[in-house]
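Budget justification aside, the reviewers requested a transparent look at the raw inputs and outputs of the sequence design task funded under Objective 1. We therefore reproduce one unedited record. The lines immediately below are the structure tokens for a 123-residue chain.
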């Protein structure tokens, strides 16, 4: 693993942890995209797709900045050990998923609190 890979991993990790992460499922489950709009000119996208080849599931992970691929990996569902770079890529996708759950939970809590405030005002 190069120093550039480590720096990019740390940058993307921090970006995921501090930004709004959107999610899209454009192909009815076969592809999922997480995305972060860094600014008006920069979007970071995390694509994961799955396929089944000869009964073996495969997952393709692609990370892009403005459509340019900066990292990718194809991993068999039967793989027992990941390379360091594959592990970093998968961890970024796991962070995106966790961030989505965090955002949804926070929104539900806020909605509940707002609803309770409205009920208290009416009483």
């Amino acid at each position: 693993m190069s120093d550039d890979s480590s720096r990019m991993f740390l940058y993307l990790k921090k970006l995921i942890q501090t930004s709004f992460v959107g999610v899209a499922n454009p192909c009815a489950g076969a592809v999922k995209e997480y995305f972060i709009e860094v600014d008006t000119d920069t979007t970071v996208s995390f694509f994961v797709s799955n396929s089944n080849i000869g009964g073996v599931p495969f997952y393709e992970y692609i990370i892009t900045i403005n459509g340019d691929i900066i990292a990718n990996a194809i991993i068999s569902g039967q793989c027992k050990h990941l390379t360091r770079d594959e592990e970093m890529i998968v961890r970024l996708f796991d962070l995106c998923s966790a961030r989505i759950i965090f955002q949804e939970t926070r929104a539900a809590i806020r909605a509940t609190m707002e609803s309770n405030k409205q009920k208290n005002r009416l009483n």
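Residues 84-122 form the longest helix (39 residues). The helical segments are 3-18, 84-122. Computational costs for records of this kind are itemized in the attached budget.
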